[in-house]
Design goal:
By secondary structure, the chain is an alpha+beta fold. It is built from ten helices and ten strands.
């Protein structure tokens, strides 16, 4: 038998799915729900927590509880890497017209808000091992955030590491004001004679940190996918390591493998 809070959650969920409560609509207050259901305040609060965990509603401080607007979904496919490589050498006008985020979301350039920041650091042990360089090697750490202009949270949290000596022959690559760079990292590395021929991606899942949950606006109980991407050049050298944190409530990972016929 369903518990009292589950019955309240079921009723509100059904109203949301039927369109009686639409994205952006304010839910009845907790006091109103107590009166209309005849249940206690803690029971109503538990029902609302269930819906918040499911990502159907969100609490806005000082305003109330609202039906959550569906977030733009992101589909990452392993086919994106060849698409990015092919795009790296096309004319600048074509590179300016679209990027990897547009490719993954179906949005247009004008739909997006982009931010990048650069910092020169010394390689800590983990990143040094991933890049195959000594600990303390000078690196360029780059942070990227891209979001839909109609939303507040970015699609992903991206941290990219490049070995400074690999790219310093082109000073433009050290300047964050040149972002967004047409053609992205693939074109940036192309300008210094580096061709990527292999990409390894290792994906794990975990609870978000407090900071990640806040920045990605994750509901309680929502996990994140953590992707470490290592890019190799023609000599087998790792030339970039990126850590990408993806929200589990709006990310699809698609892996397609073409197999040889017997």
């Amino acid at each position: 038998m369903a518990k009292a809070y589950e019955k309240i959650a079921d009723d509100l969920r059904a109203r949301i799915r039927a369109g009686q409560l639409r994205p952006g609509d304010r839910l009845p207050s907790e006091a109103d729900l107590v009166r209309s259901t005849g249940r206690s305040g803690p029971t109503v609060q538990q029902a609302l927590r269930v819906l918040q965990t499911e990502g159907l509603i969100e609490k806005q401080h000082g305003r109330g509880t609202f039906v959550r607007r569906p977030r733009t979904r992101v589909q990452r496919s392993n086919a994106r890497h060849q698409w990015e490589k092919d795009r790296a050498r096309v004319a600048e006008a074509r590179r300016l017209s679209t990027g990897a985020t547009e490719h993954d979301t179906g949005l247009a350039v004008d739909d997006l808000v982009f931010h990048a920041s650069y910092e020169e650091i010394e390689a800590a042990r983990d990143i040094a091992e991933a890049l195959g360089v000594p600990e303390g090697t000078p690196l360029l750490r780059r942070s990227y955030r891209t979001r839909h202009s109609a939303e507040r949270a970015p699609f992903t949290l991206v941290t990219s590491h490049l070995v400074r000596s690999h790219i310093e022959s082109n000073p433009d690559l050290l300047d964050e004001t040149n972002e967004p760079w047409p053609g992205g990292t693939w074109n940036q590395l192309h300008t210094v004679g580096i061709e990527i021929v292999r990409v390894d991606e290792h994906v794990t899942a975990r609870p978000p940190t407090v900071e990640e949950a806040e920045e990605l606006e994750l509901g309680p109980g929502t996990a994140v996918l953590v992707l470490r991407k290592s890019s190799y050049d023609t000599g087998g050298r790792v030339v970039e390591v990126s850590d990408v944190v993806l929200p589990g409530d709006r990310t699809d990972m698609l892996f397609t493998t073409h197999l040889e016929r017997w």
